[in-house]
Write a structure and sequence with these properties.
This protein is an alpha/beta fold. The protein contains 20 helices and 10 strands. The strands form 2 sheets. The protein has a 5-stranded parallel beta sheet, sandwiched between helices. It is elongated, with a radius of gyration of 27 Å. The two termini are about 45 Å apart.
Length: about 500
Protein backbone atom coordinates (compact mmCIF):
# COMPACT_ATOMS: atom_id res chain seq x y z
CA UNK A 1 0.00 0.00 0.00
CA UNK A 2 2.89 2.37 0.74
CA UNK A 3 5.19 1.35 -2.13
CA UNK A 4 4.32 4.35 -4.32
CA UNK A 5 5.09 6.65 -1.40
CA UNK A 6 8.66 5.35 -1.12
CA UNK A 7 9.84 6.12 -4.66
CA UNK A 8 11.68 9.31 -3.82
CA UNK A 9 9.19 11.81 -5.30
CA UNK A 10 10.68 15.29 -5.72
CA UNK A 11 9.69 18.71 -7.02
CA UNK A 12 12.37 21.18 -8.03
CA UNK A 13 12.56 24.60 -6.44
CA UNK A 14 11.86 26.23 -9.82
CA UNK A 15 8.71 24.21 -10.47
CA UNK A 16 7.51 24.84 -6.93
CA UNK A 17 7.94 28.59 -7.22
CA UNK A 18 6.19 28.61 -10.59
CA UNK A 19 3.15 26.63 -9.48
CA UNK A 20 2.67 27.98 -5.99
CA UNK A 21 1.15 31.43 -6.75
CA UNK A 22 -1.58 30.01 -8.97
CA UNK A 23 -2.33 27.26 -6.45
CA UNK A 24 -2.65 29.71 -3.56
CA UNK A 25 -4.91 32.01 -5.54
CA UNK A 26 -7.15 29.11 -6.58
CA UNK A 27 -7.32 27.80 -2.99
CA UNK A 28 -8.34 31.22 -1.69
CA UNK A 29 -11.04 31.50 -4.35
CA UNK A 30 -12.37 28.06 -3.48
CA UNK A 31 -12.31 28.88 0.23
CA UNK A 32 -14.28 32.08 -0.40
CA UNK A 33 -16.85 30.17 -2.46
CA UNK A 34 -17.14 27.62 0.33
CA UNK A 35 -17.65 30.36 2.92
CA UNK A 36 -20.26 32.22 0.88
CA UNK A 37 -22.24 29.13 -0.05
CA UNK A 38 -22.01 27.54 3.43
CA UNK A 39 -23.21 24.33 1.82
CA UNK A 40 -20.92 21.91 3.61
CA UNK A 41 -17.99 21.72 6.05
CA UNK A 42 -14.53 20.46 5.10
CA UNK A 43 -12.73 18.08 7.47
CA UNK A 44 -9.02 17.50 6.78
CA UNK A 45 -7.18 14.75 8.66
CA UNK A 46 -3.37 14.81 8.67
CA UNK A 47 -1.98 11.50 9.84
CA UNK A 48 1.06 9.38 9.15
CA UNK A 49 4.60 8.60 10.17
CA UNK A 50 6.33 10.77 12.77
CA UNK A 51 8.29 13.68 11.23
CA UNK A 52 6.56 13.29 7.85
CA UNK A 53 5.43 16.93 7.86
CA UNK A 54 1.99 17.03 9.45
CA UNK A 55 2.66 20.20 11.44
CA UNK A 56 4.36 21.91 8.50
CA UNK A 57 1.37 21.08 6.30
CA UNK A 58 -1.08 22.55 8.79
CA UNK A 59 0.98 25.74 8.98
CA UNK A 60 1.15 26.00 5.19
CA UNK A 61 -2.61 25.65 4.77
CA UNK A 62 -3.05 28.47 7.26
CA UNK A 63 -0.57 30.54 5.27
CA UNK A 64 -2.06 29.75 1.86
CA UNK A 65 -5.67 30.35 2.83
CA UNK A 66 -7.60 32.73 5.09
CA UNK A 67 -6.83 31.47 8.63
CA UNK A 68 -9.95 33.17 10.03
CA UNK A 69 -12.06 30.43 8.49
CA UNK A 70 -9.84 27.49 9.40
CA UNK A 71 -10.12 25.68 12.71
CA UNK A 72 -7.06 23.60 13.61
CA UNK A 73 -6.81 20.91 16.26
CA UNK A 74 -3.69 18.97 17.20
CA UNK A 75 -3.79 15.69 19.06
CA UNK A 76 -2.95 16.29 22.67
CA UNK A 77 -3.13 14.60 26.04
CA UNK A 78 -6.67 14.13 27.24
CA UNK A 79 -7.90 16.73 29.68
CA UNK A 80 -9.85 15.75 32.79
CA UNK A 81 -12.97 17.07 31.10
CA UNK A 82 -12.38 14.83 28.07
CA UNK A 83 -11.56 11.72 30.10
CA UNK A 84 -14.96 11.93 31.76
CA UNK A 85 -16.86 11.71 28.51
CA UNK A 86 -16.99 9.23 25.60
CA UNK A 87 -13.77 9.32 23.53
CA UNK A 88 -15.47 10.83 20.48
CA UNK A 89 -16.80 13.80 22.47
CA UNK A 90 -13.59 15.79 21.95
CA UNK A 91 -13.94 15.43 18.19
CA UNK A 92 -17.65 16.15 18.01
CA UNK A 93 -16.99 19.35 19.95
CA UNK A 94 -14.37 20.43 17.39
CA UNK A 95 -16.26 19.69 14.17
CA UNK A 96 -16.27 22.70 11.82
CA UNK A 97 -19.62 24.25 10.82
CA UNK A 98 -20.79 24.49 7.22
CA UNK A 99 -18.63 26.88 5.22
CA UNK A 100 -15.54 26.35 7.38
CA UNK A 101 -12.48 24.09 7.21
CA UNK A 102 -11.36 21.98 10.15
CA UNK A 103 -7.85 20.50 10.22
CA UNK A 104 -7.00 17.66 12.61
CA UNK A 105 -3.47 16.43 13.34
CA UNK A 106 -4.00 13.10 14.88
CA UNK A 107 -7.76 12.58 15.10
CA UNK A 108 -10.04 9.68 15.97
CA UNK A 109 -7.54 7.31 14.33
CA UNK A 110 -4.64 8.08 16.66
CA UNK A 111 -5.62 6.22 19.83
CA UNK A 112 -6.76 2.97 18.10
CA UNK A 113 -3.54 2.91 16.04
CA UNK A 114 -1.12 3.66 18.88
CA UNK A 115 -2.83 1.32 21.35
CA UNK A 116 -2.62 -1.59 18.91
CA UNK A 117 1.00 -0.87 17.91
CA UNK A 118 2.06 -0.91 21.57
CA UNK A 119 0.07 -4.06 22.35
CA UNK A 120 -2.55 -2.44 24.56
CA UNK A 121 -5.37 -3.75 22.34
CA UNK A 122 -5.86 -6.89 20.27
CA UNK A 123 -6.63 -6.90 16.55
CA UNK A 124 -10.27 -7.78 17.23
CA UNK A 125 -10.70 -4.65 19.34
CA UNK A 126 -8.93 -2.56 16.70
CA UNK A 127 -11.35 -3.86 14.07
CA UNK A 128 -14.30 -2.92 16.28
CA UNK A 129 -12.91 0.58 16.78
CA UNK A 130 -12.33 1.01 13.04
CA UNK A 131 -15.85 -0.17 12.31
CA UNK A 132 -17.22 2.51 14.63
CA UNK A 133 -15.02 5.11 12.88
CA UNK A 134 -16.37 4.07 9.48
CA UNK A 135 -19.93 4.52 10.72
CA UNK A 136 -19.01 7.91 12.18
CA UNK A 137 -17.45 9.15 8.94
CA UNK A 138 -20.33 7.77 6.88
CA UNK A 139 -22.73 9.70 9.08
CA UNK A 140 -20.70 12.91 8.59
CA UNK A 141 -20.70 12.41 4.82
CA UNK A 142 -24.44 11.74 4.84
CA UNK A 143 -24.80 15.05 6.67
CA UNK A 144 -22.91 16.74 3.82
CA UNK A 145 -19.31 16.92 5.09
CA UNK A 146 -16.34 16.70 2.71
CA UNK A 147 -13.70 14.54 4.42
CA UNK A 148 -10.11 14.52 3.15
CA UNK A 149 -7.77 12.05 4.86
CA UNK A 150 -4.05 12.48 4.11
CA UNK A 151 -1.52 9.88 5.20
CA UNK A 152 1.98 11.39 5.13
CA UNK A 153 4.45 8.57 4.66
CA UNK A 154 8.19 8.06 5.11
CA UNK A 155 10.24 4.92 4.58
CA UNK A 156 12.21 3.66 7.56
CA UNK A 157 15.45 5.18 6.25
CA UNK A 158 13.75 8.47 5.44
CA UNK A 159 12.29 8.69 8.93
CA UNK A 160 15.68 8.01 10.52
CA UNK A 161 17.32 10.75 8.44
CA UNK A 162 14.54 13.18 9.30
CA UNK A 163 14.82 12.46 13.04
CA UNK A 164 18.60 12.95 13.01
CA UNK A 165 18.33 16.17 10.97
CA UNK A 166 15.76 17.69 13.31
CA UNK A 167 17.69 16.59 16.40
CA UNK A 168 20.96 18.07 15.11
CA UNK A 169 19.53 21.51 14.31
CA UNK A 170 19.30 23.69 17.48
CA UNK A 171 16.22 25.36 16.02
CA UNK A 172 14.31 22.09 15.75
CA UNK A 173 15.94 19.80 18.31
CA UNK A 174 13.17 20.58 20.80
CA UNK A 175 10.74 18.72 18.55
CA UNK A 176 12.47 15.37 19.03
CA UNK A 177 11.70 13.48 22.20
CA UNK A 178 12.85 10.14 23.54
CA UNK A 179 9.43 8.73 22.64
CA UNK A 180 10.05 9.54 18.95
CA UNK A 181 13.06 7.24 18.86
CA UNK A 182 11.12 4.54 20.75
CA UNK A 183 8.39 4.77 18.14
CA UNK A 184 10.98 4.57 15.39
CA UNK A 185 12.19 1.22 16.75
CA UNK A 186 8.66 -0.07 16.19
CA UNK A 187 8.55 1.11 12.58
CA UNK A 188 7.74 -2.29 11.09
CA UNK A 189 4.90 -2.88 13.54
CA UNK A 190 3.61 0.66 12.99
CA UNK A 191 3.67 0.18 9.23
CA UNK A 192 1.83 -3.14 9.45
CA UNK A 193 -0.96 -1.79 11.68
CA UNK A 194 -1.21 1.43 9.66
CA UNK A 195 -1.69 -0.51 6.45
CA UNK A 196 -4.43 -2.57 8.07
CA UNK A 197 -6.10 0.61 9.31
CA UNK A 198 -5.94 2.43 5.99
CA UNK A 199 -7.16 -0.58 4.05
CA UNK A 200 -10.13 -1.00 6.37
CA UNK A 201 -11.17 2.65 6.57
CA UNK A 202 -10.55 3.86 3.02
CA UNK A 203 -14.16 4.15 1.89
CA UNK A 204 -15.74 5.62 -1.26
CA UNK A 205 -17.06 8.52 0.84
CA UNK A 206 -13.76 9.18 2.64
CA UNK A 207 -10.74 7.52 0.97
CA UNK A 208 -7.20 7.84 2.25
CA UNK A 209 -4.74 9.84 0.13
CA UNK A 210 -1.16 8.61 0.68
CA UNK A 211 1.53 11.26 0.12
CA UNK A 212 5.27 10.78 0.35
CA UNK A 213 6.61 13.24 2.92
CA UNK A 214 10.38 13.14 2.29
CA UNK A 215 10.41 16.13 -0.08
CA UNK A 216 8.71 19.18 1.43
CA UNK A 217 7.83 20.75 -1.92
CA UNK A 218 6.35 17.56 -3.34
CA UNK A 219 4.32 16.98 -0.19
CA UNK A 220 3.00 20.54 -0.06
CA UNK A 221 2.00 20.76 -3.72
CA UNK A 222 0.42 17.30 -3.66
CA UNK A 223 -1.78 18.09 -0.67
CA UNK A 224 -2.63 21.59 -1.92
CA UNK A 225 -3.69 20.31 -5.34
CA UNK A 226 -5.69 17.42 -3.87
CA UNK A 227 -7.51 19.84 -1.57
CA UNK A 228 -8.21 22.26 -4.41
CA UNK A 229 -9.47 19.52 -6.70
CA UNK A 230 -11.84 18.12 -4.05
CA UNK A 231 -13.15 21.58 -3.16
CA UNK A 232 -13.73 22.63 -6.74
CA UNK A 233 -15.44 19.39 -7.73
CA UNK A 234 -17.79 19.67 -4.78
CA UNK A 235 -18.43 23.42 -5.18
CA UNK A 236 -18.95 23.31 -8.94
CA UNK A 237 -21.26 20.32 -8.85
CA UNK A 238 -24.96 21.22 -9.04
CA UNK A 239 -26.69 21.14 -5.69
CA UNK A 240 -28.99 18.19 -6.15
CA UNK A 241 -31.32 16.58 -3.62
CA UNK A 242 -29.75 13.80 -1.62
CA UNK A 243 -29.92 10.56 -3.55
CA UNK A 244 -32.34 8.19 -1.96
CA UNK A 245 -30.87 4.97 -0.68
CA UNK A 246 -32.61 1.59 -0.73
CA UNK A 247 -34.65 1.49 2.42
CA UNK A 248 -35.92 -1.50 4.34
CA UNK A 249 -39.67 -1.75 4.51
CA UNK A 250 -41.50 -0.30 7.49
CA UNK A 251 -43.37 -3.26 8.88
CA UNK A 252 -46.69 -2.81 10.63
CA UNK A 253 -48.44 -5.65 12.42
CA UNK A 254 -51.15 -7.07 10.21
CA UNK A 255 -53.64 -7.13 13.09
CA UNK A 256 -53.10 -3.44 13.83
CA UNK A 257 -51.96 -4.02 17.43
CA UNK A 258 -49.22 -1.62 18.54
CA UNK A 259 -47.16 -1.53 21.72
CA UNK A 260 -48.67 1.74 22.99
CA UNK A 261 -52.13 0.17 22.81
CA UNK A 262 -51.08 -2.48 25.33
CA UNK A 263 -50.46 0.05 28.12
CA UNK A 264 -52.92 0.06 31.01
CA UNK A 265 -53.87 3.73 31.11
CA UNK A 266 -56.11 3.22 34.15
CA UNK A 267 -53.16 2.80 36.54
CA UNK A 268 -53.32 5.20 39.49
CA UNK A 269 -51.53 5.95 42.73
CA UNK A 270 -53.64 7.51 45.50
CA UNK A 271 -52.42 10.75 47.06
CA UNK A 272 -51.37 9.29 50.45
CA UNK A 273 -49.39 6.44 48.87
CA UNK A 274 -47.90 8.86 46.36
CA UNK A 275 -46.63 11.24 49.06
CA UNK A 276 -45.05 8.38 51.00
CA UNK A 277 -43.42 6.74 47.96
CA UNK A 278 -42.23 10.07 46.58
CA UNK A 279 -40.37 10.88 49.77
CA UNK A 280 -38.75 7.43 49.88
CA UNK A 281 -37.73 7.45 46.22
CA UNK A 282 -36.36 10.99 46.28
CA UNK A 283 -34.31 10.06 49.33
CA UNK A 284 -33.10 6.94 47.54
CA UNK A 285 -32.08 8.99 44.50
CA UNK A 286 -30.30 11.54 46.68
CA UNK A 287 -28.28 8.83 48.41
CA UNK A 288 -27.35 7.30 45.06
CA UNK A 289 -26.09 10.68 43.82
CA UNK A 290 -23.82 10.81 46.88
CA UNK A 291 -22.66 7.19 46.61
CA UNK A 292 -18.90 6.73 46.96
CA UNK A 293 -18.66 5.40 43.40
CA UNK A 294 -21.07 7.82 41.75
CA UNK A 295 -18.18 9.93 40.45
CA UNK A 296 -17.27 6.96 38.22
CA UNK A 297 -20.51 7.17 36.24
CA UNK A 298 -22.72 9.84 34.67
CA UNK A 299 -26.46 9.85 34.08
CA UNK A 300 -28.39 10.96 31.02
CA UNK A 301 -32.15 11.09 31.47
CA UNK A 302 -34.33 11.90 28.48
CA UNK A 303 -38.04 12.51 28.32
CA UNK A 304 -40.23 12.14 25.28
CA UNK A 305 -43.97 11.83 25.22
CA UNK A 306 -47.29 13.18 24.08
CA UNK A 307 -47.83 16.92 24.49
CA UNK A 308 -49.04 17.67 28.05
CA UNK A 309 -48.04 14.20 29.24
CA UNK A 310 -46.25 15.59 32.30
CA UNK A 311 -42.59 15.63 31.31
CA UNK A 312 -41.91 18.84 33.22
CA UNK A 313 -43.55 17.53 36.39
CA UNK A 314 -41.50 14.32 36.29
CA UNK A 315 -38.30 16.30 35.75
CA UNK A 316 -39.05 18.48 38.78
CA UNK A 317 -39.52 15.42 41.00
CA UNK A 318 -36.07 14.25 39.96
CA UNK A 319 -34.32 17.58 40.46
CA UNK A 320 -35.94 18.10 43.86
CA UNK A 321 -33.85 15.18 45.07
CA UNK A 322 -30.54 16.43 43.68
CA UNK A 323 -27.95 19.08 44.44
CA UNK A 324 -28.52 21.85 41.91
CA UNK A 325 -24.81 21.77 41.08
CA UNK A 326 -25.04 18.13 40.00
CA UNK A 327 -27.48 18.41 37.11
CA UNK A 328 -28.39 20.37 34.00
CA UNK A 329 -31.77 20.49 32.30
CA UNK A 330 -31.49 20.77 28.54
CA UNK A 331 -34.75 21.80 26.86
CA UNK A 332 -34.76 20.89 23.17
CA UNK A 333 -36.63 23.06 20.70
CA UNK A 334 -36.14 23.91 17.03
CA UNK A 335 -32.40 24.01 16.19
CA UNK A 336 -30.60 27.36 16.16
CA UNK A 337 -28.58 28.61 13.19
CA UNK A 338 -25.41 27.41 14.91
CA UNK A 339 -26.91 23.94 15.32
CA UNK A 340 -28.18 23.77 11.74
CA UNK A 341 -24.61 24.32 10.55
CA UNK A 342 -23.50 21.08 12.26
CA UNK A 343 -24.41 17.38 11.95
CA UNK A 344 -27.72 16.56 13.62
CA UNK A 345 -26.30 14.86 16.73
CA UNK A 346 -23.76 17.65 17.44
CA UNK A 347 -26.24 19.65 19.52
CA UNK A 348 -26.67 16.66 21.84
CA UNK A 349 -23.08 15.48 22.03
CA UNK A 350 -21.97 18.84 23.39
CA UNK A 351 -24.33 18.55 26.37
CA UNK A 352 -23.11 15.17 27.62
CA UNK A 353 -22.33 15.38 31.34
CA UNK A 354 -19.07 14.79 33.16
CA UNK A 355 -18.70 11.91 35.61
CA UNK A 356 -20.76 12.34 38.73
CA UNK A 357 -23.31 14.57 36.96
CA UNK A 358 -26.82 14.35 35.53
CA UNK A 359 -28.01 15.71 32.19
CA UNK A 360 -31.80 15.77 31.84
CA UNK A 361 -33.16 16.27 28.33
CA UNK A 362 -36.67 17.65 27.91
CA UNK A 363 -37.11 16.25 24.39
CA UNK A 364 -34.05 14.79 22.75
CA UNK A 365 -32.27 13.39 19.71
CA UNK A 366 -35.37 11.34 19.01
CA UNK A 367 -36.93 14.40 17.44
CA UNK A 368 -35.53 13.26 14.08
CA UNK A 369 -37.58 10.06 14.10
CA UNK A 370 -40.64 11.72 15.64
CA UNK A 371 -41.51 15.34 14.82
CA UNK A 372 -39.08 15.67 11.89
CA UNK A 373 -40.41 12.45 10.38
CA UNK A 374 -44.09 13.29 10.84
CA UNK A 375 -43.81 16.95 9.86
CA UNK A 376 -41.58 16.26 6.86
CA UNK A 377 -38.64 18.35 8.15
CA UNK A 378 -36.19 15.73 6.87
CA UNK A 379 -36.19 13.08 4.17
CA UNK A 380 -37.17 9.46 4.74
CA UNK A 381 -33.55 8.51 4.10
CA UNK A 382 -32.44 10.84 6.92
CA UNK A 383 -34.80 9.58 9.58
CA UNK A 384 -34.41 5.94 8.60
CA UNK A 385 -30.63 6.05 9.00
CA UNK A 386 -31.09 8.01 12.25
CA UNK A 387 -32.13 4.82 14.08
CA UNK A 388 -28.69 3.24 13.73
CA UNK A 389 -26.91 6.58 14.36
CA UNK A 390 -28.85 7.00 17.60
CA UNK A 391 -28.06 3.45 18.69
CA UNK A 392 -24.36 4.11 18.03
CA UNK A 393 -24.56 7.35 20.03
CA UNK A 394 -26.15 5.65 23.02
CA UNK A 395 -23.74 2.72 22.85
CA UNK A 396 -20.81 5.12 23.12
CA UNK A 397 -22.37 6.69 26.19
CA UNK A 398 -22.98 3.34 27.86
CA UNK A 399 -19.45 2.13 27.06
CA UNK A 400 -18.24 5.21 28.93
CA UNK A 401 -20.23 4.24 32.06
CA UNK A 402 -23.15 6.55 31.38
CA UNK A 403 -26.61 5.50 32.53
CA UNK A 404 -29.03 6.25 29.69
CA UNK A 405 -32.57 6.37 31.07
CA UNK A 406 -35.22 6.89 28.36
CA UNK A 407 -38.85 7.61 29.23
CA UNK A 408 -41.85 7.84 26.94
CA UNK A 409 -44.79 9.40 28.79
CA UNK A 410 -48.07 8.29 27.23
CA UNK A 411 -51.56 9.72 27.71
CA UNK A 412 -54.82 9.15 25.88
CA UNK A 413 -56.31 11.64 23.48
CA UNK A 414 -59.16 12.37 25.89
CA UNK A 415 -56.76 13.07 28.74
CA UNK A 416 -54.68 15.33 26.52
CA UNK A 417 -57.74 17.33 25.49
CA UNK A 418 -58.68 17.74 29.17
CA UNK A 419 -55.18 19.03 30.04
CA UNK A 420 -55.09 21.40 27.07
CA UNK A 421 -58.32 23.03 28.18
CA UNK A 422 -57.09 23.27 31.79
CA UNK A 423 -53.90 25.00 30.63
CA UNK A 424 -55.86 27.56 28.67
CA UNK A 425 -57.84 28.45 31.82
CA UNK A 426 -54.88 28.84 34.20
CA UNK A 427 -52.83 31.99 33.65
CA UNK A 428 -49.43 30.66 34.71
CA UNK A 429 -49.89 27.53 32.58
CA UNK A 430 -51.26 29.23 29.47
CA UNK A 431 -47.77 29.60 27.97
CA UNK A 432 -47.50 25.81 27.78
CA UNK A 433 -50.22 25.49 25.14
CA UNK A 434 -49.62 26.65 21.56
CA UNK A 435 -51.31 26.39 18.18
CA UNK A 436 -48.73 23.74 17.31
CA UNK A 437 -49.98 21.55 20.16
CA UNK A 438 -53.50 21.67 18.74
CA UNK A 439 -52.23 20.89 15.23
CA UNK A 440 -50.30 17.87 16.51
CA UNK A 441 -53.54 16.34 17.79
CA UNK A 442 -54.70 16.06 14.20
CA UNK A 443 -51.70 13.85 13.45
CA UNK A 444 -52.12 11.55 16.43
CA UNK A 445 -52.11 8.27 14.38
CA UNK A 446 -48.95 9.34 12.51
CA UNK A 447 -47.13 10.17 15.75
CA UNK A 448 -48.33 6.93 17.32
CA UNK A 449 -46.86 4.91 14.45
CA UNK A 450 -43.60 6.88 14.63
CA UNK A 451 -43.33 6.19 18.37
CA UNK A 452 -43.89 2.47 17.89
CA UNK A 453 -41.26 2.32 15.14
CA UNK A 454 -38.88 4.25 17.40
CA UNK A 455 -39.33 1.82 20.28
CA UNK A 456 -38.94 -1.21 18.03
CA UNK A 457 -35.65 0.07 16.60
CA UNK A 458 -34.00 1.82 19.55
CA UNK A 459 -35.08 0.00 22.71
CA UNK A 460 -31.87 -1.94 23.21
CA UNK A 461 -30.47 -4.12 25.96
CA UNK A 462 -28.09 -1.32 26.98
CA UNK A 463 -30.53 1.59 26.65
CA UNK A 464 -34.12 0.34 26.87
CA UNK A 465 -37.19 2.53 26.65
CA UNK A 466 -39.46 2.76 29.69
CA UNK A 467 -43.06 3.32 28.67
CA UNK A 468 -44.90 5.28 31.34
CA UNK A 469 -48.68 5.27 31.68
CA UNK A 470 -49.13 8.97 32.42
CA UNK A 471 -52.90 9.54 32.56
CA UNK A 472 -52.34 9.64 36.32
CA UNK A 473 -49.50 12.02 37.11
CA UNK A 474 -48.81 10.40 40.47
CA UNK A 475 -48.31 6.98 38.89
CA UNK A 476 -46.07 8.44 36.17
CA UNK A 477 -43.78 10.26 38.59
CA UNK A 478 -43.38 7.24 40.85
CA UNK A 479 -42.62 4.93 37.93
CA UNK A 480 -40.02 7.34 36.55
CA UNK A 481 -38.24 7.66 39.89
CA UNK A 482 -38.33 3.91 40.58
CA UNK A 483 -36.90 3.11 37.16
CA UNK A 484 -34.19 5.76 37.35
CA UNK A 485 -33.05 4.62 40.80
CA UNK A 486 -32.99 1.00 39.67
CA UNK A 487 -30.89 1.78 36.57
CA UNK A 488 -28.36 3.77 38.60
CA UNK A 489 -28.11 0.98 41.18
CA UNK A 490 -27.48 -1.57 38.44
CA UNK A 491 -24.73 0.60 36.93
CA UNK A 492 -23.01 1.07 40.30
CA UNK A 493 -23.18 -2.67 40.96
CA UNK A 494 -21.26 -3.37 37.74
CA UNK A 495 -18.29 -1.17 38.65
Amino acid sequence: MFESAELGHKISKEVYKKELPNLREALLDAQLDLLQSARFPVIILLAGVDCAGKGETMNLLHEWMDPRHIESHAQRELTDEERERPPMWRYWRDLPPKGKIGIFIGSWYSAPLVDNVHGRTKNAELDQQLDRIIRFETMLCNEGALILKFWLHLSEDQQKKRLKKLEKDPKTSWRIKESDWKNYKQYDRFRLVSERMLRTTSTPEAPWIIVEGADDRYRSLSIGKALLDALRRRLDAPETPQASEPLPPLFSSIDGLQILQTLDMTKKVIKKKYDDELEILQGRLNLLSRHKDFDRISVVVLFEGNDAAGKGGSIRRITQALDARAYRIIPIAAPSEEERAQPYLWRFWRHLPRRGRFAIFDRSWYGRVLVERVEGFCSQTDWMRAYSEINDFEEQMVRNHTVVAKFWLAITQDEQLKRFKEREKIGFKRFKITEEDWRNREKWPLYEQAVCDMIDRTSTEIAPWTLVEANDKNHARIKVLKTLCSQIEQALAKL
